[in-house]
Structure formats: C-alpha cells, structure tokens
Amino acid sequence: MRLAAYPRFPLVTGPTPLQRASRLEQALGPKSPRIYIKRDDLTGLAYGGNKARKLEYLVADALKQGATVLVTEGVTQSNHARMTAAAAVLAGLKCVLILDARNGADEQGNLLLDRMLGADVRIVAGRDERIAAMKTIGEELRSAGEIPYVIPTGGSVPLGSLGYVYGVIELESQFFELGEVPKRVYFPNGSEGTLAGIVAAAKVLDVSWQPLPVAVEGNAADMVRGAMPIISGTLELLGTSRTVESCEITIEEGFTGEGYGIPTEAGLEAIRLLAQTEAIFLDPVYTGKAMSALISHIRSGVFTPDESVVFIHTGGTPSLFVNPGLILESL
Fold first, then answer.
1. Structural domains in the chain?
2. Backbone angles phi, psi at 295, to 5 degrees
3. Separation CA 161–CA 231 (nearest Å)
4. Gap between the Cα atoms of 80 and 107, Å rounded
5. What's the gap between Cα 54 and its chain centre?
6. Which of these is catalytic: 22, 32, 78, 330?
7. How far is CA 266 from CA 92, 192, 219, in A?
8. Of 61, 112, 117, 65, whose CA–CA distance to 94 is shortest?
9. b vs e for 92-124, b when ≥16 Cβ sit within 10 Å of the residue's Cβ?
10. How are strands ordered across the β-sheet holding 210-215?
11. Using CA atoms, how far apart are residues 205 and 3, in angstroms rounded to an integer?
C-alpha cells in the first residue's frame, strides 16, 4: 500500500481517542452492545472534524503545486468550508469560499468562523448558482495573479479520501490495543469522501467489521454511484489490485428526514442523549442523524450485548449554535 508516498501537511492532532460510551450503553438498556466513539471531532483544527484528515493531503498537494489560494464550496454552514479556511491560515494561503444560502445565511456558527478566519466569503442563492460561480472562479483568480487550488465539496476526491485510509489504520491499531473486533462502524455520509476512504481501507486491510455510512441527504443508490469513482481512485492511489463493487456498499438511508440540514426528532433525541450521558456534543446536520440510526438499530435488537460497535464522530459542533431553539425544545 503506497499511502506513505503521499505528503501530508500537519493539521490533525492524533491519534484521536476511541472512547467507551458506557453511560450511553446503560441508558439504552440490556440490549446494548459495547459502544465506542471515535472522537474525530477532536482532530484539533478550528473546532475539529473529519475534514482535517482530508485536508492534510489536499493542502500538501496545493503547496507542492505552488498554489496561493485555496478555493472550495458548500452551504453557508459548511464544516468543510470552515476547516479549509483554517487550513489556509496555517499553510499561509488565501482562501475563497463559495457558499449557497438555501438553508439561510445567518452570520453565526460556521459562517461566523469563516469570517473570523479571514476567508473571502461569497454567498450565492442556491446550488445552481454555486456551481456556476465555481466554474468561473479559477479564471478570475488567475487573472488577478493568483494560483488557485480548487477543492470540491467536502474534499471528496481520491487524494482527500486517503485521510480516512490513514484514519482506519489508526482505528485498527486502537481495536488491537483494546482487544475488540466490532461488528459495525457507523459514520455520517454526505459528499462520499469519508465513505470512500473508509471503504477503500476496509477492503485493502481486509477488516472484519462492516462500514455503515448513514445518509444525511439524498438516497442510497445515488450515493453509491457517486462514491464508486472516488473509491476506485483511492484504491488506484494506494497501488492495490483490489476492487470494490457497488453491491458491497450498504448505506443506511432511513434517517435523513426531510432533507439536508433539516433536523429530525430522532436526531435531536440522539443529541440530547449523548450530551446527557457522555458529555459529547453531536450536531443536527450530520452526527445527530447518524447516531440516531445506531440507537434505533440497538433498540431493535440488531446487536447482542456481547458484541461491540463503533461510531465515528465527524464533528460539526458549530452548527449547534445556528438553531438553539430546536435544541432547547428537545431537552
């Protein structure tokens, strides 16, 4: 596996902890398996989160290419945009963020942090306008004498997905130290980059556990189609002859609710439960929905008490502060 051949720009404080959630287990009752939480909300970059792992590889590549400015896109409360702006600060680069306001554009949460980090924030009305702006931003910046490095939504390209190949190697080492062989590893899925890295690593390392991404928008079939080129590209970068077929990927799609960024009752319950049992904060966009899937599966008897399961906490804490009313009503 050629992972060591790709440079990383240091952004992650790791290895991130793998913590036993024993109080959550007690709250879920005698059906609960052993629950572990991989704390990638503690990666250390600007409130942490999974995007730091991807950005280590992407920023290193940007510097190698002589870039002067990082450019990326997302919604106004994008965790990826916030972390890209933070990575740009540490790498001595400028940053342009193209953000769409379909879920609002209040100057709080991630958007407030983007401004504090000094990013050039350009807010457009919706996804179509964002795509159009991304098509022209490179030419604009080059005309101004800059060398742009464009990062797609979520850093979801094969090079970025190497971050979660590294993350799975880290996780496997922690399993070995604990003497655990989990049945499943749950994590939120939006732009497929984290999924691609975890699935590719699981294949190359021949792990015994099932990766179970939980969709926060869209449908599973579309997500699998979107993930396949990223997975294939990641495996190619690793120099392996192993392949992943679409039929090998299972995405849980029953917990998305009405759409991206729209909280669900089950997700809000998960947020309350984790805060009041483990003092861990989930968010309503990603981790709350993913944890609600795990909780539902435990309650329905998918696991036995002698099994173990892992939840990867991918961050997203700043979005808690965007809709405090909904959070308070759920307590």
1. 3-49+157-330 (3.40.50.1100), 51-155 (3.40.50.1100)
2. -60, -45
3. 8
4. 17
5. 9
6. 78
7. 41, 23, 18
8. 117
9. ebbbbbbbbbbbebeebbbbebbeebebebebb
10. 18-20, 34-39, 308-313, 184-189, 210-215
11. 12
Rounded to two decimals, the pTM is 0.96
Closest CA to 22 of 36, 8, 11: 36
Q: What is the per-residue pLDDT for 329? A: 86
Other C-beta atoms lying within 10 Å of the C-beta of residue 245: 8
Query: How many of the other CB atoms lie within 10 Å of CB of 27?
Result: 15
* pLDDT tens, position by position, 284-326: 999 999 999 999 999 999 999 999 999 999 999 999 998 888 8
pLDDT value at position 330? 84
Phi, psi at residue 288, to the nearest 5°?
A: -60, -45
Contact 316, 43 (CB under 8 A): no
Question: Catalytic annotation on 241?
Answer: no
Burial of 42 (0-12, 13-18, 19+ CB in 10 A): middle
Show contacts of 173-176: CB within 8 Å, 24+ apart. 173/15, 174/15, 174/18, 174/38, 175/18
- In 3D space, the residue among 72, 65, 55, 49 whose CA is nearest the CA of residue 9 turns out to be 55
Which residues face 283 on adjacent strands?
Answer: none
| Alpha-carbon span 172 to 102, nearest angstrom | 39
Is 148 in contact with 67 (CB distance < 8 Å)? yes
Q: Are 313 and 41 in contact (CB under 8 A)?
A: yes
pLDDT, one tens digit per residue, over 80-92 is 999 999 999 999 9
Res 1 pLDDT > 80 = no
Locate 147 and state its tokens.
């060398």
Q: Cα angle vertex 249, ends 182, 242, to 5°?
A: 90
In the chain, what percentage of residues exceed pLDDT 90?
Answer: 91
Q: Hunting for tokens 């800059």 — which residue is that?
A: 146
